[in-house]
Amino acid sequence: MRRARWMGLAVAAGLLGAAAPPSPPPPPEIAIPQPRVFPESITATRDGTLIVGSAGNGTIWRARPGDKAATIFIAPDSSGLVSVLGVFADDRHGLLYVCSNGRRSDPTEARDRAAAIRLFDLKSGAPVRNIPTPGASRSLCNDFAVAPDGTAYVAETLRGSIIRVRGDKADVWIADPRLAGADGIAFDDDGQLYVTSVTSGRMFRTGTNADGSARPLVELIPPRKLDRPDGLRHIGRGRFLLAEAGDQGGITLMTVKGDTVTLSPLPGGRTGTTSAVALGKTSWAVAGKLRYRTDPALAGQDPGPFAIYGTPIRAGR
After folding, report:
1. Residues 53, 61: Cα–Cα separation, whole Å
2. Could you report the per-residue pLDDT of 205-247, keeping only the tens digit for each?
3. Residue 41 maps to which CATH number?
4. How many domains does the chain have?
5. What are phi and psi of 138, to 5 degrees?
6. Does the residue 214 lie in any domain?
7. Which residues form the signal peptide (predicted)?
8. What pLDDT sits at residue 299?
């Protein structure tokens, strides 16, 4: 009788165990093995390599497919980079675009020298070009979009402009008070250029006229206010990955059809995400934890470790 009872309990336990769904695997994560990195931007190459820029110390990090930890690709000691915001891989032309800026605490002369649009060889990391940012330290190079012909467009945050880069020349392509806080910038398949403001949460569309000038800005109204919209990357068919760096932010799958914008948050997005990029069906992102650099209440506190984190590209809540 006792044996039968134990056998019954064992069978019941087995059935319960079989019915329990398997635990989901932990989200993929690639360590950035250095403190106070404050990664602000991420880009990817066609072969799946991820590249991250450090706002904290100017290091450019790289993680190849399968890496568990990123390694230093371009060191600040050799490059002269001080603080890096946007990074953008232009596979077509073999270039890595980098937004170089100075530290706020540095003298104006040092910040002016650091304010530049830097180009590096995408494979070797060798320096290719150093183009002073128009406006020097009164401007802030934040991120890039590159047209098929190699012309680069820069979201410039402080003066509310888009800078155009052709060859070794950079000029202000469009300036408008509505672009104050310009941060995220990306082309779609049709050559339309989208830009978001991290300060106002507004979103605009422009494009290029036949003579190369900018078309008038058109404001697009999302279904909700964007939460400190930061990095913007086009992933095809009118869809974009939008990083929202606010307290309620994360990664948003944004779709634009005409003047209509729809927003679908991705599950697993982290507060303070500053940039995200797509590789296949996975979004790889960085949470810059930039409040530890800007909020006096957090000054000197440990922001904890930094990482590149992955999440599936599918609509969430």
Report:
1. 6
2. 999 999 999 999 999 999 999 999 999 999 999 999 999 999 8
3. 2.120.10.30
4. 1
5. -80, -10
6. yes
7. 1-18
8. 86
